[in-house]
Amino acid sequence: MVSAIPTKQSSDLEYKIGHEAIVYALERQQDRSIREIEDLTYREYLHLLCHAAYFVEVRVHPDRLAVAIQKARRRAQDDELIDDLLRHQAHGAMMEGLFGLKSSEVAQRRRELGVVSQQGRPRRLEPTEADAVWASWKRHAHLPLAERYLRVARQCRVTAQAVWQLVLEAEDILEDRGP
User: Fold this and answer.
1) Domain extents for the chain?
2) Which residues of the chain are modeled with pLDDT < 50?
């Protein structure tokens, strides 16, 4: 019985992982296996890849894995924070200042989230709103900056952009006063 070329049941990713694992394993061996694999036809090599799990062993470095997991969690938290800020009408300059995002990245994320950006000038806060925002801003000084903007916007029921603008104005006033 002649077997056919592996079907799409095996994903391209599985082939890629299998190929990389074989190459990695063989680079560490100096025996006839390398020559045997090099002599395979394309069709034979595809079949070999389907069975890579039977003869390839992958080693995990626990310390590196722990660091990678921490980074992945941090990046996922940052992604969630970015999305929340965009849902609270954070504007491009704010996202660039906090996360280094370009305007095209901000626009793409807004599209993905279904968030429509405000057109025109943002509404100025009423004096009572501004006082509440500033008091909340000072109260949450212990938070990382991006989280602080989001917390104040949520708590005061204003846009993140309004908080950003108020903080910039307040910092300018405080800077003009000097020490």
Assistant:
1) 12-55, 62-113, 127-177
2) 1-9
